[in-house]
Amino acid sequence: MCFSFEHMKWLVKSNQQLKTSDGKSVDIFEFRHVKDEQTLSAWAKHFRNHYCLDSQIDSLRSGTGLSRAEYLNQIKFPDKSVAPGASIRVGDFAEILAADYLEYILKHWVPRVRYSHKTVSNESTKGSDTIGFMFSSDGNNSKDTLTIIESKAKYTGKHENRLQIAIDHSDKDILRKAETLNAIKQRFLDKEDIYNSQRIERFQNEADNPYIQNFVAIAHLDNSNFTEDVITSANSSSHSHADQLFLIVIKGDEMMKLVHELYERAANEA
Asked: pTM for the whole thing?
């Protein structure tokens, strides 16, 4: 199994809760990562397979003359040193962690098809950052749920109110939803995965087939640049779906170092 959630034991909800200037609650999560080789290796494999399935890497690198690590570092992964590669790494890392939160904590089905079709490794992927689905267990389709997460990360320097930026960009997700759903559906059809393409299809016509819709804005920060008064200055009142919007901060120690170490391990252990 290429995907693993062992690392999610490090994501711990804090007793601390803040409120924005318009009174909306902000949940605070600590990412308490430690030097656990087994968990880090499992996480690196999980992370790597978003970009390139282990079952396909030898076929993909065939003809390039590159080792697995070289192929990943030169073709698939954002560059550590050449701009804007480091910032793309941070963005991808945050979005994948948000997807893990959505699947592991909120129990959604989260298709993992966003990064494998990148043409340019040093560019961010278009569309909504993270999208997941829940299907009602009682047969009432109107209780099916679609959740879209907008992530904004800053692990070095001042964070320039990443929560506010995530809120503002989340408001655009309602416009990007149709394109994102179509892209995911097409990925499944390319693989002749009719079952999952039809699961996506269920959410493409909200007017005739209503469902619950939630939005989440996440600020991903380092403990060194987390500032309460910046978070509490955020305002979500102008969000078009403010009643369905949830706000989160995920923060931890030495997060930039962790990002680079995870990419390095993902390549070297392929």
From this structure: 0.96
